[in-house]
Design brief:
8-stranded mixed sheet, elongated, 4-stranded antiparallel sheet, alpha/beta, 767 residues
């Protein structure tokens, strides 16, 4: 497989990926167009399906009829779980069967295709599938109905969508609407049945409770009469009422007594101390005291007036003072009367308190006796209250359930918010989208397959930075060119090549150099007959006489005459036989020597193309002097090649070019100076090692190389040597085989015969 060797890190060459896809653009476009046409035809022949949708909203309805206004009582109806449950009810088998019977769906072929099938199902005949006709017709219709029906809650809301698809647009709209109506009727009937069941159960229970309440209340009345536990107006017993009143009266009497004793004590203390009583409220408030105070004030005024004109011993002053003293004595006497009155009030209050205390004691004794009787009374009252409350609850529920038995009073807890309408166009198949998708799918699949093939073949892989890049193969258009004049064969001037040690990571040999092709006189044309190619290359036009180095190369010196070998002993093989031999051996490195010149090189080109036609990744390295393989495969002798790579004037990937007539690759002779390239001949071994790790077969065409140069090239390797003697006579073949056998290559293959291969494709893949 072409690519990188196992000890190299690889990168993906996007340019090569694009090139691999671009080369197959016609096939890709043709396949895409065929896929689009096929998809358009198939989708146009499909039966159209129409889809319609109806929507329900789940909400509490009918709560206002009983006047309770309890909106929170239906919160459980509106949660997400309940909405999902209602969606499942809409898909129930009983509801679907009812719709199918009502709309007579069994008479339609699309709902029961097995019953209307003209031919039996082959899978049923061979027993791989059960016979659908063994099932009842309703079950078959139910299965088809469910396949066409889609019910789902709309996310984030209490809305349920009902979708149905059918070949008939009217039926596609009618079924969701009928299903929604049937669901509402089912829910309403369920609620009405619930209310009917409630009234039937509550009616006898209410009668029983009424009898129990009456008996409990009678027990309470009898117990109250037996124990004298009569009630007052405020729902309390008389004893309790009297006890409360007596306690309030006793508190009031005690307060009056304390107040009277306090006032009397205050007056008594003032009289005992000789203080004035003008500040005592009880004294000041007396009418008699007020009149005496006024008289005393008048006398004091008269005394004051008389004192200004009369002497102290005057009888008038003495009379006035005597009257003033009498008034003071009257005030004191009146004050003592007030004190006696206050003390009398305190005594009366004290006596009243004592009397009330006696009455309170008797009432407390009577109250304790009545409390013992009220314990049993309260127990009976509690029982009667419980029975009465239960009766009232049952009566309220009975009235509510009885009011909802009517159809108008029991609406379903849902309503239709959107009815399905007849769809104007089918939802399947969408001819244009299907065609576009099929075309895109075909295009993408082909591109992916080509990319994978390029990756697996190694064509789109290149060594990572710092390693020799052997898989980046830029394409170049074939251009008319002639081999450069005076080019010396590279293999003829190779220095002594020693066996390399362990292969180390080799840096790139130099920057990329892309010479500009120039059009020259000779045009390389693909020929159908390889013999014509050989004939045209035996005397190439514009070729110059060989240089002295070439002459020495083509006529190597030998130490002794080589004895002739009988022609019958020469193992001569045709190109097809050599190809099959190499395919069986799977040799990575093949060295080709062409003693006859360009005719043998042309046969090596045919061999490389024959190997590439058998799905082998092949690269041909042109080490000839005439650049014959370069002219035949690349079509341009001025492409960067092996000499540029050795001189460091081109990158490795820039020296590998595709064959214009096959899938093989070629490394041309190059445009750099051969003498300078030979100074870096040590790199040739590393280059060939890198190529053998990247390609399945590396074919090195040496041209008419001598045995000594070949020995340097094959030392330390397990290469297969081929002597390309196409068109040579038997004597020449025998002499060449003998010379190479004497030099240590007795197992060399001799490739002769015609170059036309049976089974080799013509056109692009023709030699």
């Amino acid at each position: 497989m072409a690519g990188v060797s196992g000890n190299q890190d690889a990168d993906i060459d996007l340019g090569q990926l694009f090139s691999a896809v671009w080369e197959k653009r016609r096939r890709i476009l043709l396949t895409t167009a065929l896929a689009a046409v096929a998809a358009f035809a198939v989708s146009s022949l499909m039966s159209p399906y129409y889809k319609a949708e109806s929507r329900l909203v789940i909400e509490a309805r009918g709560a206002g009829l009983v006047g309770d206004g309890a909106q929170g009582a239906n919160d459980g109806l509106l949660d997400a779980s309940n909405v999902a449950s209602q969606a499942q009810i809409l898909q129930s088998a009983d509801l679907i069967r009812a719709i199918a019977r009502e709309m007579n769906l069994g008479a339609r072929k699309e709902f029961d295709p097995d019953a209307y099938a003209l031919l039996p199902d082959p899978l049923v005949l061979v027993g791989l599938k059960p016979d659908p006709l063994d099932l009842p017709a309703e079950d078959r219709i139910l299965k088809t109905f469910r396949e066409r029906l889609q019910v789902y809650p709309v996310e984030g809301s209490r809305v349920i969508a009902i979708e149905f698809s059918s070949k008939d647009p009217k039926l596609a709209a009618a079924i969701p609407n009928r299903l929604a109506a049937a669901y509402l009727a089912l829910q309403s009937d369920a609620k009405r049945d619930t209310h009917s069941d409630a009234t039937r159960w509550l009616q006898p229970e209410i009668e029983t409770l009424r009898a129990r309440v009456e008996a409990a209340e009678k027990k309470v009345a009898d117990y109250r009469a037996a124990h004298g536990l009569f009630q007052s107006g405020d729902n309390t017993s008389f004893t309790t009422k009297q006890l409360a009143d007596m306690s309030a009266e006793l508190a009031k009497v005690r307060s009056d007594r304390a107040s009277a004793e306090a006032r009397a004590g205050n007056v008594r203390a003032a009289l005992a101390a000789g203080r004035g009583t003008d500040t005592l409220s009880d004294v000041v408030g007396s009418a008699m005291i007020q009149r005496l105070k006024e008289s005393e004030a008048g006398l004091r005024s008269q005394i004051a007036d008389a004192s200004t004109t009369l002497m102290d011993g005057h009888p008038r002053l003495k009379a006035l003072r005597a009257q003033l003293a009498g008034i003071g004595q009257q005030i004191e006497a009146e004050t003592r009367k007030i004190l006696a009155s206050l003390e009398g009030e305190a005594t009366v209050a004290r006596l009243r308190e004592q009397q009330l205390m006696q009455q309170l004691g008797s009432l407390q004794a009577e109250s304790s006796r009545s409390d013992e009787g009220e314990v049993g009374l309260r127990a009976l009252e509690r029982e009667a209250a419980v029975e009465r409350q239960l009766l009232e609850t049952y009566l309220a529920r009975y009235r509510e359930a009885a009011s909802r038995i009517d159809v108008q009073s029991t609406p379903a807890d849902a309503r239709i918010v959107s009815t399905a309408i007849e769809p104007p166009e089918p939802y399947f198949p969408k001819v244009i989208p299907i065609t576009i998708v099929a075309a895109l799918a075909a295009f993408v699949v082909q591109v992916i397959v080509l990319i994978l093939m390029a990756l697996f073949s190694g064509r789109a892989l290149r060594p990572a930075d710092g390693e020799i890049d052997v898989s980046s193969v830029p394409r170049s258009n074939p251009v008319s060119a002639a081999p450069p004049e005076g080019m010396t064969p590279v293999a003829a001037v190779l220095p002594e090549i020693h066996t390399p040690g362990p292969v180390i990571e080799t840096p790139r040999l130099g920057p990329s150099l892309t010479p500009q092709p120039e059009s020259v006189g000779i045009t390389a044309q693909p020929l159908d007959d390889a013999n014509a190619i050989i004939a045209s290359l035996e005397t190439p036009s514009g070729a110059t006489p060989p240089s002295p180095a070439e002459a020495a190369f083509e006529a190597p010196a030998v130490s002794a005459p080589v004895p002739p070998v009988p022609s019958a002993a020469v193992p001569a093989l045709g190109i097809e036989a050599v190809r099959d031999y190499l395919l069986r051996r799977r040799d990575a490195l093949v060295i080709s020597v062409s003693p006859q010149g360009d005719a043998g090189s042309a046969a090596a080109v045919v061999l490389a193309r024959a190997l590439a036609a058998r799905r082998r990744s092949v690269v041909l390295v042109d080490l000839t002097g005439s650049a014959c393989p370069t002219g035949l495969m690349a079509g341009d002798a001025r492409l960067a090649g092996i000499t540029d790579l050795l001189c460091g004037e081109a990158a490795f990937g820039d020296t590998i070019h595709p064959d214009r007539l096959s899938e093989a690759h070629v490394i041309p002779q190059g445009t750099a100076d051969a003498a300078e390239a030979m100074r870096a001949a040590d790199r040739l071994t590393m280059i060939i090692d890198a190529l053998t790790g990247a390609y399945e077969i590396v074919l090195v065409e040496c041209g008419p190389a001598d045995v000594r140069a070949l020995e340097r090239l094959m030392r330390g390797s397990h290469a297969e040597l081929i002597l390309s003697l196409s068109g040579a006579s038997e004597d020449v073949i025998a002499e060449t085989v003998a010379r190479f056998a004497a030099a240590g290559y007795p197992d060399a293959l001799v490739m002769t015969g015609g170059t036309h291969l049976t089974g080799t494709p013509h056109g692009r893949h023709a030699a």
